[in-house]
């Protein structure tokens, strides 16, 4: 099966402060983009697979992101550490001051 | 995407070609197969054998017994991994996970797998286990032979995940099978919020292990959980075309469901053996050396039939693994397996159950002793033949299990007064005396660990429960003996026990108990959470789940000199509101002492209308809650309210409830309202290990519930006030302890401040005062706070004053200028808006 991946410019790079997450829309998909403390970016689904919590409001570190509602956590490859379902992950990069997410 | 349990973080090792070692191939990577590999390696088998393991599932090896706790949400998937892919790689064991073996060419000694590979063996171990038995029912399978969507067995982690996923999106489950597995599935799904009905084909629950009366006791306990039980109920048809919608019973009744769990027993996986010409009856036939009728082919675990018995428990499977490892490695060439006397101890639907041997007398001369207390949920019985224990059933009270297991296993002499088998006549409440337990009595049935071995591990320097468990494997099967293991470890260590280090840490990410952490933070002058991680965490690594506790601690230590970092703060503290299940927020303005004015009410009403607030609610803390506010509206709402934050979202001092006191009440003895306002003014927003609720009442009638608050103040007349601490009326209900009776409101304020600061400096993260006060000890608390026995009072007064001085209203602060870009930007899915019920 072939899956088509499209790159979307979702916003400006400076919209995501260090250590925090913000929600964006890439095509029809809501994504939460995080900037880790080392400056790198991560993009995951904006909606928690457990109970629909807003992932962009969650806390994170170099290894995991934590949903604010019930503190479920996922590694940045989307695998859960707390028994919730997997969290979709997306490629994200910075280009000319823009945030580009591939979904 | 599906997560691989115990997945690998490295590339596969390249196999060396020239290897003179003999090849062992293990078919099956479950409880038996993986344990066999461990046992071979423990006997230095790695020097003489190359080992290849085929596993049907893509995962590493995990503890199947613990799937029920995972389903119930009591254990993490990660906790049940026994051996990860890395574990195999590090030990040079080739794991072919996700590769099914098709057949064995026993003449050429080659294993043919589904991926087309052929692997030669010198010794072959079949450990293929069992599969769920799906009884024949109309409609249970689709045209292509697969199970209908929504129908699932309960045997693997993937099936467990399927059920967990279904529990989130679906409402009603039917569990078929009233045995152990079915009961566990039913309880777990119910704990996940599903409505559960249990269908059992036989006359009573757990009929394989229990007699009708004991089954009845279990049934009542299950029904008390809210699970409907149908016995003598055979399902004949499964309804639904795309997904299951119900089951039809033999008597014509239909039960609606959108999840059907089939736990109606297991059958040994014997197809590979059959296809390969190995002799199979109910399972693969093995002798006392676990050898099949084909040379160099062995079978262990649930797929093996030994002396007519097929075992469905983990303990015999692990005994098989041990005996076969002894034989193949030559560690004990005389090793033989002669059968297991199975004793099971488990918790089913919240009830402790232990069974061994027969459940009812079989001969006229058998003695049968029963204690049945259905009301209390207790049923105990023993069967004695020729002065030996041949069976015991314990439901709801398993205190005698260690003694009975001993008598059953070792055929030790029984007390002449048989009643002593079931109850301690001296003291009915006594736990099994750990000291009296014979040294060779088996404590962990899954792993066959005796009391002597546990004591030996302690003597060898294992000084904590986890270390003893790692060294002996005791408690690492079903876990039901953990309590007994702990008591033995405590007894053997005789006070020299260390707790597992991390248990004393304030947060998991920084390896220090709270007092040490506070000292280190002050010594290194660490004023931000990132600085704490960089300086004090192992490897300087940050930890998301530790951030909130550290932020609170730093604010307590540094007051206004704390360096805020948005990423260190939980969303509630970042936006100064409480996040709700739909991602909106609740806004609770400060209303000191629960006293409001027409002007405030007017403003609140205007805001509620202007922002279409879906619900306006009076809180339990005498305030008004505006629920369902969008994050992006928060600053505007605060500006329009022009009231300070009520801190209803924080791990901080929240509210002081009051009664109307002497101003209006006929019975009021003193001005509780004013004292409540003064307390709230002084301690507003003070952060603490967990939330703090206070109340002041004007007489002991306690209308504002001061006896059950973290700090409660009660007027007793003539200007005197009683100060209670450590009360609670939430998930725990506890009347506060009387700390002191004082004569002025100034003393109330001073004492409250001291208590708060002591709690802030010594309470663990999220430890409420109702746990802190008993832990610290009321007598010591009184001595420290009232007599200054440890010389702390001046520092406590100073500490709380620093936090009082650092108070600023966060709503006023952040409504003009966001603390970070996009602070109030919505994080909700931008395409689908949540549905908030509007009343």
Task: Give structural notes.
The complex is a heterodimer of chains A (103) and B (839). Chain A is mainly β and 103 residues long. Chain A has one domain (7-102): Rieske [2Fe-2S] iron-sulphur domain (Rieske Iron-sulfur Protein). Chain A contains no helices and 9 strands. Chain A has strands spanning 7-12, 21-26, 29-35, 41-45, 59-60, 64-66, 73-75, 89-95, 98-102. In chain A, strands 1-9-8-4-3-2 form a 6-stranded antiparallel beta sheet, with no helix packed on it. In chain A, strands 5-6-7 form a 3-stranded antiparallel beta sheet, with no helix packed on it. Chain A starts with 6 loop residues before the first strand and ends with a strand. Chain B is an alpha/beta fold and 839 residues long. Chain B has 7 domains: 22-131 and 268-329, FAD/NAD(P)-binding domain (3-Layer(bba) Sandwich), CATH 3.50.50; 151-264, FAD/NAD(P)-binding domain (3-Layer(bba) Sandwich); 354-431, 2-Layer Sandwich (Enolase-like, domain 1); 433-499, Arc Repressor Mutant, subunit A; 505-559, no CATH class; 570-645 and 813-839, no CATH class; 653-805, Sulfite Reductase Hemoprotein, domain 1. Chain B contains 25 helices and 40 strands. In chain B, the strands form 12 sheets. Chain B has a 5-stranded parallel beta sheet. Chain B has a 5-stranded parallel beta sheet with strand order 11-18-12-13-14. In chain B, strands 23-24-27-26-25 form a 5-stranded antiparallel beta sheet. In chain B, strand 1, helix 1 and strand 2 (49-55) form a beta-alpha-beta unit. In chain B, helix 10 (451-459) crosses helix 11 (465-472) and helix 20 (672-683) packs parallel to helix 21 (745-762). Residues 10-17, 426-431 and 830-839 of chain B have low confidence and may be disordered. The interface between A and B is large, with 48 and 47 residues. Chain A: InterPro entries: Rieske_2Fe-2S (IPR017941), Rieske_2Fe-2S_sf (IPR036922). Chain A: Residues 7-101 form the Rieske domain. Chain A: This is Nitrite reductase (NADH) small subunit.
């Amino acid at each position: 099966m072939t899956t088509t991946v499209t790159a979307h410019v979702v916003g400006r790079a400076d919209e995501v402060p260090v250590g925090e997450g913000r929600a964006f829309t890439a095509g029809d998909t809501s994504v939460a983009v995080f900037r880790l403390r080392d400056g790198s970016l991560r993009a995951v689904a904006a909606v928690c697979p457990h109970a629909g919590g807003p992932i962009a409001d969650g806390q994170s570190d170099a290894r995991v992101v934590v949903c604010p509602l019930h503190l479920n956590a996922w590694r940045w490859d989307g695998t859960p550490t707390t028994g919730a379902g997997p969290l979709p992950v997306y490629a994200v990069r910075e280009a000319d001051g823009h945030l580009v997410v591939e979904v | 995407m599906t997560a691989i349990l115990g997945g690998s973080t490295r590339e596969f090792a390249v196999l060396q070609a020239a290897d003179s070692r003999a090849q062992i191939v293990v078919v099956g990577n479950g409880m038996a197969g993986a344990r066999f590999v461990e046992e071979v390696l423990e006997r230095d088998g790695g020097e003489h054998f190359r080992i290849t393991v085929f596993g049907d599932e893509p995962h590493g090896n995990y503890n199947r017994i613990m799937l029920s706790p995972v389903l119930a949400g009591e254990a993490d998937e990660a906790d049940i991994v026994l051996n990860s892919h890395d574990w195999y790689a590090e030990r040079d064991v080739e794991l072919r996970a996700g590769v099914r073996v098709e057949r064995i060419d026993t003449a050429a000694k080659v294993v043919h797998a589904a991926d087309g590979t052929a692997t030669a063996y010198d010794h072959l171990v079949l450990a293929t286990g069992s599969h769920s038995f799906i009884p024949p029912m109309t409609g249970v399978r689709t045209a292509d032979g697969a199970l209908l969507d929504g129908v699932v067995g309960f045997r693997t982690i993937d099936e467990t995940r399927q059920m967990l996923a279904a529990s989130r999106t679906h409402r009603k489950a039917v569990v078929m099978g009233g045995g152990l597995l079915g009961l566990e599935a039913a309880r777990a799904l119910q704990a996940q919020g599903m409505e559960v009905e249990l269908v059992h084909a036989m006359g009573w629950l757990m009929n394989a292990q229990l007699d009708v009366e004991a089954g009845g006791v279990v049934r009542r306990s299950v029904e008390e959980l809210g699970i409907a039980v149908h016995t003598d109920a055979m399902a004949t048809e499964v309804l639904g075309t795309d997904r299951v919608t119900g089951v039809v019973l033999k008597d014509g009744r239909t039960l609606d469901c959108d999840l059907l769990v089939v736990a109606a027993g297991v059958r040994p996986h014997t197809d590979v053996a059959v296809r390969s010409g190995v002799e199979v009856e109910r399972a693969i036939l093995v002798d006392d050396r676990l050898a099949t009728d084909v040379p160099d082919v062995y079978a262990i675990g649930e797929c093996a039939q030994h002396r007519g018995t097929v075992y469905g428990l983990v303990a015999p499977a692990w005994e098989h693994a041990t005996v076969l490892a002894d034989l193949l490695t030559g560690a004990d060439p005389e090793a033989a397996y002669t059968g297991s006397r199975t004793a099971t101890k488990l918790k089913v639907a919240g009830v402790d159950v232990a069974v061994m041997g027969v459940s009812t007398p079989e001969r006229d001369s058998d003695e049968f002793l029963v204690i049945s207390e259905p009301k209390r949920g207790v049923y105990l019985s023993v069967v004695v033949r020729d002065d030996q224990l041949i069976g015991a059933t314990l439901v709801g009270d398993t205190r005698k299990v260690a003694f009975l297991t001993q008598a059953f296993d070792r055929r030790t002499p029984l007390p002449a007064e048989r009643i002593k088998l079931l109850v301690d006549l001296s003291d009915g409440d006594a736990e099994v005396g750990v000291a009296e337990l014979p040294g060779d009595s088996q404590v962990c049935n899954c792993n066959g660990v005796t009391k002597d071995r546990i004591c030996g591990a302690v003597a060898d320097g294992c000084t904590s429960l986890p270390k003893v468990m790692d060294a002996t494997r005791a408690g690492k099967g079903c876990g039901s003996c953990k309590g007994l293991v702990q008591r033995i470890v405590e007894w053997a260590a005789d006070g020299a026990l260390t707790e597992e280090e991390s248990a004393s840490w304030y947060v998991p990410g920084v390896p220090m108990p709270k007092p040490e952490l506070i000292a280190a933070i002050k010594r290194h002058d660490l004023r931000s959470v990132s600085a704490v991680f960089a300086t004090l965490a192992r490897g300087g690594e940050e930890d998301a789940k530790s951030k909130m506790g550290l932020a609170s601690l730093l604010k307590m230590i540094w007051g206004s000199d704390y360096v805020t970092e948005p990423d260190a703060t939980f969303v509630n503290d970042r936006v100064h509101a409480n996040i709700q299940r739909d991602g909106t927020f609740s806004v609770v303005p400060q209303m000191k002492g629960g006293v409001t004015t027409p002007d405030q009410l007017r403003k609140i009403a205007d805001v509620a209308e202007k922002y279409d607030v879906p619900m306006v609610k009076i809180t339990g803390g005498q305030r008004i809650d505006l629920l369902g506010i969008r994050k992006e509206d928060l600053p505007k709402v605060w500006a329009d309210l022009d009231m300070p934050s009520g801190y209803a979202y924080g791990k901080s001092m929240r509210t002081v409830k009051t009664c109307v006191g002497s101003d209006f009440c006929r019975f009021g003895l003193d001005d509780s309202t004013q004292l409540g306002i003064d307390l709230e003014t002084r301690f507003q927003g003070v952060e603490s290990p967990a939330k703090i609720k206070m109340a002041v009442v004007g007489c002991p009638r306690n209308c504002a519930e001061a006896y059950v608050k973290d700090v409660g103040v009660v007027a007793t007349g003539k200007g005197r006030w009683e100060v209670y601490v450590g009360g609670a009326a939430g998930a725990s209900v506890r009347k506060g302890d009387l700390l002191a009776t004082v004569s002025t409101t100034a003393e109330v304020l001073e004492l409250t401040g001291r208590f708060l600061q002591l709690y802030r400096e010594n309470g663990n993260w999220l430890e409420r005062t109702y746990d802190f006060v008993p832990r610290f000890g009321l007598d010591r608390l009184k001595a420290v706070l009232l007599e200054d026995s440890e010389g702390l009072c001046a520092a406590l007064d100073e500490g709380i004053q620093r936090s009082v001085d650092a108070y600023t209203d966060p709503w006023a602060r952040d409504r003009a200028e966001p603390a970070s870009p996009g602070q109030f930007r919505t994080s909700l899915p931008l395409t689908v808006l949540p549905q908030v019920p509007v009343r």
